[in-house]
Amino acid sequence: MSDLHSFNEALNARAGRKLLPSIAVGLGLIFLIWLSLAFERTAFALLVSLALVLATKELSSAFTSVGFLNSFRTLAVAVVAISLSTWFAGINGLALSMAAAFTLILLLSLRHGPENFVKRASSTGLALLYLPFLGGFIILIARPSNGLAAIMTFLVLIGCNDTFGYIVGVLIGKHRFAPTISPKKSVEGLIGSFVATTIGGAIAFHYILDNDWRYGAAAGILTVITATSGDLIESAIKRDMSIKDMGNLLPGHGGVLDRIDSAIFSAPAMYMALEVVKRIS
């Protein structure tokens, strides 16, 4: 038992995360997503909206800590409005609500005068693009009649990328992939992600979406590229602001944004892949 505890502690130290709480939280989130889509699909949009609001709170607090002023309450209202517009009006709702939210928030910022206006506009624009806009594509993936299957496939792709990149990186990772941005990431872990996510995508597209496995393999490759980009971008933001995690709400993961950073960057790619497959099938 002590050997198992020592092994677990060694894994935690090497990966920089607590493994068992991380797994428990991940499985719990997957169950919530499945439950919402299986029994009340609109609840899934509300669940995504809640996650995006919590992530916005973390990002807003981080911006404020380095002098980029913004109004979280205003951003939260915008996140909910954009999410619901996306669910009920599709990609047109996402585009129009995003444009309206950004314009209205900038107009509201004028009441504070010109001082720090650029900082407010910059932090607001980044927050809106980063979270409700990119995150809105998760909602778009779930909108069609096969939304449950599409989201489950998306989770398989994200899960394969994160899990096998983590495992391979912890076990045999030696060559740092981006040491100044994310020191824990390794070339070996990235290769593990590519292999596992390509295979996982092929299997998921064939058995869950009932589609050509080759499309799934291609979607898997695209997911690794976009998910890794999302991880690195969030890591760069945190390093620039000298913080380890965006929050501590999720044990083993950190904040909500730390958990969804790869998913929100991969969602537009997955949506595009599904749209292309639908048109050529």
Automatic annotation (TrEMBL):
Q: Tell me where the transmembrane regions lie.
A: 20-39, 46-69, 75-108, 120-142, 148-168, 189-209, 215-233
> Which is one Gene Ontology cellular component term of this protein?
plasma membrane
Q: How does it sit in the membrane?
A: Multi-pass membrane protein
InterPro entries per the UniProt record, alphabetical: PC_trans
Which UniProt keywords are given for this protein, alphabetically ordered?
Cell membrane, Lipid biosynthesis, Lipid metabolism, Membrane, Nucleotidyltransferase, Phospholipid biosynthesis, Phospholipid metabolism, Transferase, Transmembrane, Transmembrane helix
Q: Name one GO molecular function term.
A: phosphatidate cytidylyltransferase activity
Example of a GO biological process term: CDP-diacylglycerol biosynthetic process
List the subcellular locations.
Cell membrane
State where it is primarily located: membrane
Sequence similarity: Belongs to the CDS family.
Please report the name of this protein according to its UniProt entry. Answer: Unannotated protein
